[in-house]
Write a structure and sequence with these properties.
mainly alpha; microtubule; cytoplasm; about 100 residues; rod-shaped; 2 domains; nucleus; DASH_Dad1; 3 helices; chromosome
């Protein structure tokens, strides 16, 4: 009967461990909430840069297009110059 009136050592130890586990879970939950708020802040800051990113992407696209046109223009000029040089070389050979 004495065991039923007072808690056994096992029950006391179990209750203490359950309380520790409960406190630990509450701390984990609080830390997860902090992490969630931090991630939301990071996402908000990232979204603020979307217009800047779009502008830079547009700039990059324009520059790539201009670079491609410039390369094509240089190739056309080089081919034209190369043909002229060949004709000059042929004329020189004929003169000798």
């Amino acid at each position: 009967m004495e065991q039923t009136a007072t808690k056994s050592d096992f029950e006391q130890q179990r209750e203490m461990l359950v309380n520790e586990i409960s406190a630990s879970f509450e701390q984990v939950l609080a830390n997860i909430n902090k992490l969630n708020r931090s991630l939301e802040s990071v996402i908000t800051v990232g979204n603020e840069f979307s217009s800047v990113e779009a502008l830079w992407s547009q700039f990059e696209g324009v520059m790539a297009k201009n670079e491609g046109e410039a390369k094509a223009g240089h190739q056309d000029q080089a081919e034209g110059a190369g043909e002229g040089e060949g004709e000059v070389q042929e004329r020189r050979e004929e003169n000798f």
